[in-house]
Each structure stands twice: as C-alpha cells, then as structure tokens.
C-alpha cells in the first residue's frame, strides 16, 4: 500500500515573525507563510472499510473536525448506526490524531421524530441530511416527498435545534441538469424555509448565483451554505477539457464561469453565511473511469491549497480564515478550534494517484503543482 504522504514537500524556512496578527495576515499576502486557526470540514465523505482507511488521514491531517456524510451502503439512518460508524472512523485514524468526526443521519420517508431525539441525546450526531431520492451517489433511499412525509420530523428538528443539511437539487428528469439547483430553491427550499423559519438549514455544495442570492436573502443565523474547492476553482469547461474528464464529474455538476465568479465573490465577501465544506467524495478509479461513472471528486489532499489559491487570486487571503475556521463553528454553535495550521507558499506536486492493493483513487488536480502547502503550525 502506498503511504499517502500528506506533506510531500519540506517546508522551507521562510518564516515571517510578527507579534501583531493584522500585520501578520497582511504580510502573508506578499510573504510566503501564514498561520490560521485549524479549519474544520463541514461536508465530508469518508466511506467505510478499505476506502475509509485509505482516505481518513488526508482529512485528519488538516482538519480539526468534520461533518461526516451518511450516504453509505446501506445508509446511516439511525443514531445507533451513526455511533457504530463513528467508532469505525476513530479506529481508522492515525494513533495520535485528535480529529473529531461529527455524525449525521440520512433522512428517509420513514425517519421518526423519536430518532431525532435519540440523535440529539447521543451527543455525537450533529445534523440530518436530506438527499432527494435519486439526486446523487447513494441517494436511492432518500426522501421522495419532503412535505408529504417529513413534517413531524422537521418540527422535531426545530425543537431540538438540529440542522438540516440539504443536497439542493430536484430530480425530475425533465429539468435540465444545470438548472436543478435553481429549481430546487424555488420549489423546495423557499417553501420549506417559509414553513419552518426557525429550522437551521445548510445548503450544501452550492454552485450557482441563484443559491448565493437565496442564502443572502434568508434570516441571519438560520440558513448558510458550504462551498467546495471544485466549484470555486473550476467551471464546466473542465468537464470537457481535451476530452471527457470523469475526475471533474461531481454533483451538483460544475456550472458556467459566471456562477463560479459569484461563488468566489460570496466566500471572499466576509459574509458569515458561507463556509468550507469540501465534499471530498472518493470513488475507486475503476468506478469513475467506466461507461457509467460515479459522481464525486476526491479533494481532501488538495482542498486547503485549492481554497487558498482561490482566495489569493481574489486578493482576499485575509478572508480565508473566517471561511475555513470561524463561520462553520459559529453557525453550528460550537467553539472554534484553538490549534493552528500553517500555509506556506511552497510548490508541491499532487500525486497522480493514491494506489492500494485493491485499486487507485485519483485526487483533484492529480499530477499538478499547487502552492500553499498546509502543515501543523
Ligand atoms: N458530490 C458528489 O458528486 N458525490 C457525493 C454525494 C454528494 O455529495 O452529492 C458522493 O457521495 O460521492
Ligand atoms: Zn450532495
Ligand atoms: Zn457530498
């Protein structure tokens, strides 16, 4: 098994020392290194079994906590299952790791209000995930009729202050795949929020100007959004650059450049409503490079470098820390991390693949050279 070396380049000594944090951040823009509070990942797929063991350190090396998606086969629909899954994640972590998995439940048509109470009492389940049935990878057990089947559960979630995390796309085959997020906002999310104005909702992995505007229009503190590195760094041309590119295929699908620019403006605006959520979604190479390839981009090894690049190019590196390390815990009502990580402007080469006895995983930006190498501060 290839040892996935997370910090492949040695950090050169370009240390910039200052006592004043403001100066420090400003200096970072022109200098070569700066520290930020340790980030969390508010949307992560760790899978289970061999895949979990292969990928977990790529997240735990950089992130303090992560919201763990429940779309396993079979999905994590019960609190007891979430507790067992949590144990298997803890077991797979490197020995000295302090990474905290924050578990979620997969909402179905038959989830009960009692299950939400159990989830809250467990202390380890932090949210419930809505997958419209058929919208994305392993969503076949998802919700078929939110307003018809889930109202008592949603009411209980308001009572328990349990956030609803949403894969925001409609599934009707007649809706164009590039419009599914916008139609979801109009047909599902807006009515949902009108009905439950005190329900905490995170619109996951937003991809459009429409989603940015929608989130900005909602009540403060109740609706927020996560944004992935791929939707900030790439537009839909990447799907076809020099041929069909299965490793750029994720859901929601990459959108046109104007939408990417709206996302960059949103995350660099200083708004507290937008925060990091990588949606790192590993699939074995053979399940990506095949006639009916899976949706999902494996970005855990490159996520922080990619976000930093986007913020740097927007002239907003001073806004990076709030996005990666403050807005998420503030929205969830959790303390911010106290440890730090360092980002160094050192070129490092992303491995072309991560290879294991059972197969390969191809990371985002495979074989490319990135900067802003993360390491412990
Ligand atoms: N984003 C993706 O394209 N895929 C995710 C599911 C999801 O987050 O929608 C996966 O689990 O593979
Ligand atoms: Zn999703
Ligand atoms: Zn996801």
How many strand segments? 15
Based on CA inertia axes, which overall geometry fits? globular
The CATH C-level class name: Alpha Beta
**What is the CATH homologous superfamily assignment?**
Metal-dependent hydrolases
Structural domain tally: 1
Structural class: alpha/beta
Q: Which CATH architecture?
A: Alpha-Beta Barrel
Spatially, the strands of the biggest sheet line up as 2-3-4-5-6-7-8-9
The CATH topology assignment is: TIM Barrel
Q: Which range best describes the helical content: under 10%, 10-25%, 25-40%, 40-55%, 55-70% or over 70%?
A: 25-40%
- As a whole number of angstroms, the C-alpha radius of gyration is 20 Å
Q: What distance lies between the first and last C-alpha atoms, to the nearest angstrom?
A: 29 Å
Average pLDDT taken over every residue? 93
Subunit arrangement of the protein: single chain
Low-confidence stretches: 1-21
Order of helices and strands: HEEHEHEHEHHEHEHEHHEHHHEEEEEE
| Strand percentage | 15-25%
InterPro entries: Amidohydro-rel, DHOdimr, Dihydroorotase_CS, Metal_Hydrolase
EC number: 3.5.2.3
Protein name: Dihydroorotase, mitochondrial
Domain Amidohydrolase-related: 41-352
